[in-house]
């Protein structure tokens, strides 16, 4: 579990969920600090939605504990839920109700008094861009506006925490951009745990990523560390001023450099007699200086040496053995 600076407002402590003989979530532990925007990723069936439901009190864990705002969810679910705004993947909306009536109804359920509710409605509707559809039945709305209504109901009681499960699922590209911008705006004053299958969205919006695979956490780190640390790629091209190079010897010398995990030959570069390699770094260090020194010591002419950050998708596929992202 990553070290989290500041006050933790979401805690998963050894969460486990069993459905008969099937273990959906196994010993999941992590903390989210106040003000963080954290991406929660995993392939199909990994346990993302199950974990979120335990955090919000919709499911009781078989073992372990969820704590929100210092309140154990299992012991005081209503107290914890007052601090949570939850948007499940399929937002539970009443199609026959007008948007304004639905939001008033949710406010009453949340225990927001009438005077406060009016103020919160104005704020939330403005923030979610609902002013033009307040008098429409929810069943008449597009998928994008339905998601906006779902976000509005999650925000109505002004929670400290937002837990969003696939908030852009099923939206067209324009709607995705709109919801993404809204989530970024919300991240300025809310703590957000966000599950999504759109990895560039996570890379752009989240400061930290938790990856779950087969019910267990396999990564918990900053987006910078997951894309620029372990698994960083270095493109390297060498040549020789005196005759042809032996690819096996060059590869062995580069592989012996500290911090290098693997050296893979690449297609022949355009320079005659040159050799190209893809070097994978092992850990958060940067072996480029040592690679340079190894090339000089070996008598190679170094034509190219540059580092490429691994994409979040590459990191995800490596940690989950290539399994695709989908709903859990």
Walk me through the structure:
The chain is 33% helix and 28% strand. The protein is α/β, with parallel strands linked by helices and 328 residues long. The longest helix is centred in the middle third of the chain and has 15 residues, at 114-128. It starts with 7 loop residues before the first strand and ends in a 9-residue tail after the last helix. The mean pLDDT is 88.
Short summary:
The chain contains 11 helices and 14 strands.
Protein topology:
Elements: E1 8-19, E2 22-33, E3 37-41, H1 48-56, E4 63-68, E5 71-72, H2 77-81, E6 84-87, H3 99-109, H4 114-128, H5 143-155, E7 161-165, H6 173-186, E8 191-195, H7 199-205, E9 208-213, E10 216-222, H8 223-228, E11 233-239, H9 247-255, E12 260-265, E13 275-281, H10 288-297, E14 301-308, H11 312-319
Parallel strand pairs: 3-8, 3-9, 6-7, 7-8
Antiparallel strand pairs: 1-2, 1-4, 4-5, 9-10, 11-13, 11-14, 12-13
Helix pairs in contact: 4-5
Fraction of residues in helix: 25-40%
Going across the biggest sheet, name each strand in turn: 6-7-8-3-9-10
> How many helices?
11
Secondary-structure element sequence?
Answer: EEEHEEHEHHHEHEHEEHEHEEHEH
Number of strands: 14
Q: Terminal Cα separation, in Å?
A: 21 Å
Residue windows where pLDDT falls under 50 for at least 5 positions: none
Radius of gyration from the CA trace?
25 Å
Mean pLDDT: 88
């Amino acid at each position: 579990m990553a070290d989290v600076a500041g006050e933790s407002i979401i805690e998963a402590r050894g969460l486990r969920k069993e459905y008969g003989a099937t273990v959906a979530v196994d010993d999941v532990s992590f903390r989210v600090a106040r003000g963080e925007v954290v991406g929660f990723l995993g392939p199909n069936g990994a346990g993302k939605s199950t974990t979120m439901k335990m955090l919000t009190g919709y499911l009781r864990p078989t073992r372990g504990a969820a704590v929100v705002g210092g309140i154990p969810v299992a012991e005081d679910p209503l107290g914890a839920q007052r601090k949570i705004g939850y948007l499940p993947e399929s937002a539970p909306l009443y199609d026959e109700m007008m948007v304004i009536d639905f939001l008033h109804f949710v406010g009453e359920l949340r225990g927001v008094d009438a005077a406060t509710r009016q103020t919160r409605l104005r704020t939330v509707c403005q923030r979610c861009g609902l002013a033009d559809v307040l008098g429409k039945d929810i069943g008449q709305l597009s998928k994008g506006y339905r998601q906006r209504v779902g976000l509005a109901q999650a925000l109505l009681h002004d929670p400290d925490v937002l837990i969003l499960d696939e908030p852009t699922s099923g939206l067209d590209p324009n709607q995705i951009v709109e919801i993404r911008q809204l989530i970024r705006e919300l991240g300025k004053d809310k703590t957000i745990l966000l599950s999504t299958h759109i990895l560039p969205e996570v890379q752009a919006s989240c400061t930290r990523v938790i990856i779950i695979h087969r019910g267990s956490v396999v990564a918990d780190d900053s987006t910078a560390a997951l894309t620029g640390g372990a698994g960083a790629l270095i493109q390297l091209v060498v040549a020789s001023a005196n005759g042809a190079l032996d690819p096996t010897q060059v590869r062995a010398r580069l592989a012996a450099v500290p911090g290098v995990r693997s050296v893979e030959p690449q297609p022949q570069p355009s320079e005659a007699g040159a050799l190209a390699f893809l070097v994978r770094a092992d850990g958060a260090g940067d072996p480029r200086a040592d690679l340079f020194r190894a090339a000089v010591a070996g008598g190679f002419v170094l034509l190219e040496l540059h580092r490429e950050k691994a994409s979040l998708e590459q990191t995800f596929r490596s940690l989950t053995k290539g399994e695709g992202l989908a709903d859990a």
